[in-house]
Amino acid sequence: MFDDQKVENIDAIGKFLRSGIYKASNAIKKDELQKFIDNNEEEMKKEYESVPEGQYYKWDIGKKGENFPSKHRYDFSKAYDHSRVVLKVFADDKESSDYINANYVDGYDLPRKFIATQAPIPGTVNDLWRMIFDTNSGTIVTLTKLVENNATKCEKYWADDGEKMFGDISVTTVKTEKLPDLDIRYYKVKRYDDVQEVIHYHFLGWPDTGTPTDPKKLLQLIDKVRKSPNMSPLRPIVAHCSAGVGRTGTFLLLFNVVEMAEKSDTVDIYKYFAKMRTQRVNVLETLDQYKFVYKTLLTAINNKM
Questions:
Q1: Which of 89, 98, 226, 266 has its CA 20 to 30 A from that of 44?
Q2: Shortest CA distance to 254 belongs to which of 264, 241, 263, 267?
């Protein structure tokens, strides 16, 4: 049921899920956030470390022989059973699986607002487009380059120009905009007689390890996604880096608390971090990423005030 973990880590996770998660909250008034960041370095560390790493729930479907390892980029990250995206399989389709390494993640005020997933590998590119089509997602956010430090991080799943087939799904690149550290592609996605429009935001300013050198560019990305004509409560945002864990989790947490800051007098990064980790394993991987969310949120608030 659970992958090999140290007993003490399993005990910490069990204790956290039974009681700790209900205490994971630190609501801070927006006008006091600067003071908190300046004077509570140790408190931020305690918050981050109080949310255990590791597997919280079953991922039995992802471990099945037909899915593992063939549908996984890394062996440490699989999709929890309870929050995984289930692909549609037609009655006459004897080959396809309903599994993809992807989980729904709640938004600030909307359940299942996001889908956090791994970057596709050669054998799962078609599955990625099946998921995008099945869920009617109008927005993709990519937070990794295809190759970083001479290692492949993401299989290319689009054509620079024109049409490309992915199984029974046709993807046509209609237009591409190139901005500093951001490529925006517009796709027409067709399956039989059904056509959907998808916008792909490919952010190139985030190193594999660490955080973006210019947080304002990440805030601009979030602003563009939020103002996208494809934004709808019925259309989840698909987000991925390479594993769909560190950079993806950082982006989703920042997205949530930016929305919270616009709709509330207080912000609670700790609460939403803890909640996200119950929906996808190890989202947001490092203390530096956690502090980055605090500091970048402050930048967002200061720019609005």
A1: 226
A2: 267
